[in-house]
Amino acid sequence: MPSAPGNNPDYRRAWSRFATGVTVITTVEPDGTPHGMTANAITSVALEPPLALVCISHARTTFRLIAESGKFGMSVLGADQRATAEYFARRPEDREGDPPSGYTSADGRHPVIEGALSTFECEVVSAHEEGDHTIFVGRVQAFETQDGEPLMWFESAFGGLQGG
Ligand SMILES: Cc1cc2nc3c(=O)[nH]c(=O)nc-3n(C[C@H](O)[C@H](O)[C@H](O)COP(=O)(O)O)c2cc1C
């Protein structure tokens, strides 16, 4: 029987069955310090012009930093970057030491995650507030990509294409 989402505990479980890849959204503090956050609510929006979106909760540090800077990076993680996804999924105050995969940025470029399968540098073209999240649409200014197995997220757990 279909259920109404309301406060139904099965609502999150229903979404957890949508298997996705995993990205890290990168931003910069006003002093230039890079900041990352694990995210899977992303998609390519259009090819002409090249647009991509990410949905960010208003509770995230990343929300404030994108709203302030008008820029973000998107790094698609490989299967060997599970520890990086776990690190950037923790609240900033709960992260210990350096990230397992560091930030990289060519001269004057936006920081992205080293060793990622694909990286995209985006400039925000519009922001849409919906509920407790904002959808940031970014125009892709530059990208890089390399072959590799992706990191996946399914039923609230990380895994590879063949499962955990
Ligand atoms: C697999 C996975 C995907 C996530 N996707 C998103 C997302 O798309 N948007 C979001 O706001 N938070 C998402 N989160 C939660 C953030 O990664 C988490 O709250 C993080 O601590 C936020 O960091 P920040 O406050 O430094 O920005 C996700 C977490 C996981 C584990």
Explain what the structure shows.
The protein is mainly β and 164 residues long. It has a single domain (17-159), classed as Electron Transport, Fmn-binding Protein, Chain A (Pnp Oxidase, Chain A, Roll). Helices cover 15% and strands 41% of the residues. The chain has three helices and twelve strands. A seven-stranded antiparallel β-sheet has the order 3-2-6-9-10-5-4. A three-stranded antiparallel β-sheet has the order 1-11-12, with no helix packed on it. Strand 11 (152-154) and strand 12 form a beta hairpin. The longest helix is centred in the middle third of the chain and has 9 residues, at 61-69. It is globular. The two termini are 30 Å apart. The model has no long low-confidence stretch (mean pLDDT 95). It binds flavin mononucleotide (FMN). Flavin mononucleotide binds at residues 22, 37-41, 55-57, 60-62, 89-92, 153.
Note poorly predicted spans.
none
Q: What is Rg?
A: 16 Å
The averaged pLDDT comes out at 95
Shape: globular
> N-to-C SSE series?
HEEEEEHEHEEEEEE
Query: How many domain modules?
Result: 1
**How many beta-strand segments?**
12
Number of helices: 3
DSSP helix fraction: 10-25%
List the strand order in the largest sheet. 3-2-6-9-10-5-4
Into which percentage range does the β-strand content fall? 35-45%
Structural class: mainly beta
Small molecules held by this entry: flavin mononucleotide
**Biggest pleated sheet:** 7 strands, antiparallel
By CATH's scheme, which homologous superfamily applies?
Electron Transport, Fmn-binding Protein, Chain A
CATH topology: Pnp Oxidase, Chain A
Second-tier CATH architecture: Roll
User: Roughly how many Å apart are the termini?
Assistant: 30 Å
Give the assembly state of these chains: single chain
